[in-house]
């Protein structure tokens, strides 16, 4: 069945999102306001009866001095990915974006391919013969995902393979860590924490660490810790105005779309983190901490408070976002994986990001430019 695709209003887009249990925070209209260097557009798919049956936020980035754009749908669009007539969904999108001057389209199907339990991840880390998570037999594997990947390749889509030794893709992470909440009480979730996590949460409580919700005025305190974290963990930090814009845009759309939590001890903020919510899916988005007084375990305290609040608001998934798939001991990101795995959740692999070159020359030129950056 052919689908009609057209631009939809923010209101129509939000109404569609409200009817879904889980949609990426990068697929709501306000995310376009977070990215001022991109032009955002809400796309809607309509069936033969005129019903809105799919939606996506596309970001269009212009090439310097050219009237051509890179079109990007991060962790989207939200369509029926396992539909037998998948081309009927994607072909109108490609045609529409070609008409918008796109030379290449990048998308991230929100489709889970494999899951590994926390115990499986722990055993894999301990095994010196295992170098990558992808080599480890999965606890769960969806055969439909492999079929979908084959269909995309046959249709001309190209998967963006994770680059670099840490396994992170150039766009959104292919591997994440999630704690399922659905059907579990908060006590169940707490019992799922490993012994070290439970001990650290108790240490923080006994030491008098106070975790509070912050607001826009607390973002500079968060950012100061974030810069310290970036230097320690060797990543390029975002500037403070990015987080201020993010707060303003997301909370204007929904007051609880973004939250800020701060862990204080003896009057000093030692750790802070941001939390994002869309429907029943909650993400730990950005975290920051100082190296001072780590013995009072402020980071565990912040995470446990956010998990408890997320559970209290009816979340079905608490998502720790990206993890490395490299399990070698000298990988500087392995400690972060251990920290997340201690929550007793599961490592999750998504289908990854896919490119469709509408103009092969410009698409190849962009790839060469990005590889040299």
TrEMBL record:
InterPro entries: Acyl_CoA_acyltransferase, FEMABX, PG_Glycine_Bridge_Synth. One of its GO terms (biological process) is peptidoglycan biosynthetic process. One of its GO terms (molecular function) is aminoacyltransferase activity. The keyword Acyltransferase applies. Keywords: Acyltransferase, Cell shape, Cell wall biogenesis/degradation, Peptidoglycan synthesis, Transferase. Gene3D superfamilies: 3.40.630.30. It holds the Pfam family FemAB. Belongs to the FemABX family. PANTHER family: LIPID II:GLYCINE GLYCYLTRANSFERASE. This is Peptidoglycan bridge formation glycyltransferase FemA/FemB family protein. It comes from Streptomyces griseoviridis. The lineage of its organism: Bacteria, Bacillati, Actinomycetota, Actinomycetes, Kitasatosporales.
């Amino acid at each position: 069945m052919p689908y009609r695709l057209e631009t939809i209003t923010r209101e129509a887009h939000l109404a569609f999102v409200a009817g879904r249990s889980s949609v990426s925070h990068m697929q709501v209209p306000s995310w376009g306001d977070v990215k001022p260097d991109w032009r955002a557009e809400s796309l809607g798919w309509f069936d033969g009866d005129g019903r809105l049956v799919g939606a996506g936020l596309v970001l269009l980035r212009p090439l310097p001095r050219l009237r051509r754009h890179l079109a990007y749908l991060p962790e989207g669009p939200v369509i029926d990915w396992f539909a037998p007539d998948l081309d009927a969904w994607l072909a109108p999108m490609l045609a529409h974006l070609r008409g918008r001057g796109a030379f290449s389209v990048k998308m991230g199907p929100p489709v889970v391919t494999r899951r590994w339990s926390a115990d499986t991840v722990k055993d894999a880390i301990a095994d010196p013969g295992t170098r990558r998570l992808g080599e480890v037999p999965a606890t769960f594997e969806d055969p439909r995902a492999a079929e979908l990947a084959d269909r995309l390749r046959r249709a001309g889509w190209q998967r963006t393979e994770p680059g670099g030794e840490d396994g992170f893709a150039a766009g959104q992470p292919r591997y994440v860590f999630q704690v399922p909440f659905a059907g579990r009480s908060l006590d169940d979730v707490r019992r799922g924490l490993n012994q070290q996590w439970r001990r650290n949460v108790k240490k923080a409580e006994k030491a008098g660490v106070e975790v509070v919700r912050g607001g826009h005025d607390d973002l500079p305190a968060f950012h100061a810790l974030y810069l310290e974290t970036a230097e320690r963990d060797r990543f390029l930090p975002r500037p403070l105005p990015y987080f201020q814009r993010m707060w303003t845009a997301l909370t204007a759309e929904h007051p609880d779309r973004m939250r800020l939590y701060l862990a204080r001890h003896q009057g000093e903020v030692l750790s802070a983190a941001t939390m994002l919510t869309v429907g029943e899916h909650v993400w730990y988005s950005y975290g920051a901490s100082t190296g001072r007084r780590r013995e009072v375990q402020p980071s565990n305290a912040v995470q446990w408070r956010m998990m408890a609040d997320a559970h209290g608001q009816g979340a079905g998934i608490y998502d720790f976002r990206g993890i490395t798939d490299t399990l070698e001991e000298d990988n500087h990101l392995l400690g972060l994986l251990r920290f997340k795995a201690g929550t007793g959740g599961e490592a999750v692999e998504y289908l990854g990001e896919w490119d469709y070159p509408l103009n092969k020359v410009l698409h190849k030129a962009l790839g060469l430019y990005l590889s040299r950056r």
